[in-house]
Amino acid sequence: MEFGIFTIGDVTTDPTNGTTPTEAERIKATVTIAKHAEEAGLDVFATGQHHNPPFVAPANPPVLLANIAAQTERIQLSTATTLITTTDPVRIAEDYSYLQHLAGGRVDLTMGRGNTGPVYPWFGKDIRQGIPLAVENYNLLYRLWREKNLDWDGNFRAPLNSFTVTPWPLDEVPPFVWHGSIRSPEIAEQAAYYGDGFFHNNIFWPTSHTARMVNLYRQRYEYYGHGRADQAFVGLGGQVFMDKDSQEAKRRFRPYFDNAPVYGHGPSMEDFTEQTPLTVGSPQEVIERYAGFRDWAGDYQRQLFLVDHAGLPLKTVLEQIDMLGEQVVPELRKEFAAGRPADIPDAPTHEWLVARQRDGSAPVPGGAPGSRAHEDRLAAEEAERAKADPGTA
Amino acid sequence: MIEIVAVSTGLSEDSTTTRLAQRMLASTEGAFAARGAEVTTTHINVRTLAKALVDLTVSGFPARELEEAFAAVKRASAVITVAPVYKAAPAGIHTLFWQLIDDASLAGTPVLLGGTGGTPRHSLAAESTLRPMIAYLKGYALPTSVFAATDDWGGGEQAGLDRRITQATDELAELALALNPAAVGTQQDTVAEAASGARLTGTSATGAPQAEGSAVEASATDSDAYARDIPYAGPAEESGRSAITPRGLGDRAREERGRDEFDPASVTPFSALLGG
Q: Which keywords label this protein (chain B) (predicted)?
């Protein structure tokens, strides 16, 4: 089980003193936060990709992550998310395999569609094609990382003739991919089809909804024969603000909650914490809340916390990371390890993926022979043949 | 079983909008009962959802009670919606309710519009805004609507409010019954039973001739689409058909709305997305 933080890089005015960081300050702060996460013993740092205010810092995740990679030793670098709809898959393939080399394999990524309409035309795309773009672009990315001299023809970019990604993925093994979606069953299905991971960023959603999405992905993962449903790769989001006691945490976070662009002027902090993963309280309360995620999500692989949002000053964010590293994560590791079946995989690392590829057990998209998906496909083909030629049936 | 849902925005404790909605709901119950249909009713006062509606608008946060109200509308076989008129338009939180519900939430559902206001001069105000919204949500807004001005509450029989309510709710019941034959067919008849029963009829008819099949049966037996394609032909006893009731447009739309898009058994396979 991995624990880490993810950022959306928002430049937000601190409502308690009216100061707004510059873009430069916010970008440098993001690097400081990532380094601090490693020092605090967290496993993952992930950045979003946005091209519109107030999310200024992470317009270019590979550049940010390469910079962080150069200043860290151990922490896994990821995205939450990489925009598969509006970023050219060739660009993604080359940027992230380059990053993989620079970071010594400490890289994975989460595919997302982005939900802001105006962003699509900035990159020459159409939001009405959101799902078809995610489907075609990822299929191309998948092949770019696995087939040399690729010939390819599709709907959303120029055809490719004998193209090979440069540099080729480290040790011939592409980074692990998660697919992020909040409410599109198609994306859970996509993750299951390829045997990839599924990340649900549930920070604004009740657990009842998240549980259904996770269940859909798990069941379909098994259907495609990549493993049992409970062995599928699940990641979840969350957001916390802690102080030594609950009252103090609430007092300190309330002005940020009440004014944040994403929360403010809507539900009360109490309503919001009741129905979403937002937990404002003592480290013990955070431990209890998040240990309970297992009850509805099953044993999962990755838990990311959002801690640097809503205009919180850098100093406070670093304190939050310290509390996660010192008090929360060690306890959660114990809780999640207890009773976890031995055959539930951890979140994939580069070494694990290399070993999986060498022993020939990498997932087959759409299901290898022996899977239910494969049997259904054979039966459908058989029915098709019988229909085309009733004489031989 | 027919479920009628009323969505009204009564803003004061003794609200005329609530009173009108209650009278329309009671009259609708009576109209269905007179036609032999059993009904359940749900009355949603949008006032109780005001904060949840605003929260969802400004921060995308879906409160549980709002989700429940939306679910009730999607389950309904007939909907009544009553709004107070403010400045020649329905009160904002009333339209907000219909603006935030999922698209196609009223597909195949007959909707009776109602409004209240200070003077009869407001009489078309509520519906001129609501009618296109109901159409956008794919509901069938009845041509007749009910408006009650202050005068109507003091006018007794002469004002004709009761008569107008009766006329409108009769229309609502007739249309709901036509659109939802399976929901009223036989009391214990579920949609699923009606569908599988229809297939049985088709099978036995191709195997051995059935005695005295009506025209409706004969035209339907050659197709599995029996349950889908024939028009409603009135209560079973009168048309001489079997007790199996075909599903109507409203029944089918409700079934579609009730489909769980996160059900692993019914998800669109990825190969279909990839090939498409």
A: Flavoprotein, FMN, Oxidoreductase
